[in-house]
Each structure stands twice: as structure tokens, then as C-alpha cells.
Amino acid sequence: MKRPTEFVKETRGGCLVYFIVSPGARSTEIGGIDGWRGAIQVRVAAEPKDGAANAELVEFLSRKLSVPASAVVVVKGSKTHRKSVFVPVSTEDVKSKLGLK
Hints:
Blueprint: E1 8-11, E2 14-23, E3 29-34, E4 39-44, H1 52-65, E5 73-76, E6 82-87, H2 91-97
Parallel strand pairs: 2-4
Antiparallel strand pairs: 1-2, 2-6, 3-4, 5-6
């Protein structure tokens, strides 16, 4: 089995970004890159109840990437810690604005 290594994938109109989300943190922040899972680790300052952790992730990405929250979409994984999120920016912008270069 091939190991995933890329945490962001170019797509039409933007890109898909893969996350491993840990809810219940003191503050929302990037924890680093999990190269084996091909995802960005992020800690969110919200509990996984009633979509609060997803909403916090969307707001965090919207602020960091300078896009409206309505443009950030959790495409897959809304009820699990592994998420695929669409953002309407380039892969280079994701990497630089999230401090992952």
C-alpha cells in the first residue's frame, strides 16, 4: 500500500486540504503535518458537539486564508477527526498562509 504524503490537492476552483482534527484544545492552532497520513494536524478550541468543532475549523481557515467562511466547505468527514476541506485558494497559498512551507 502506498503511503499518502500530500496534504493539499489542487482541484477546480481551489484545492482540497486534508486534516486530522483534535477538538477540545485551549486554542485553535496548526499542530504540524502528519506525512504518513497525508494530513495537517490541527487542534480546535471547541468540543465535537453539534458541529461546533467543524464550525471552529471553518472559521479558523477562513481567517488564516482570508476568504469568507461560506467559501470553506467540509467535503468529507463531518463526523470524524479525518476531514477533507475545500478552500477557494491555490495550494501555494494554503501552504504559505498556514505556515507549512
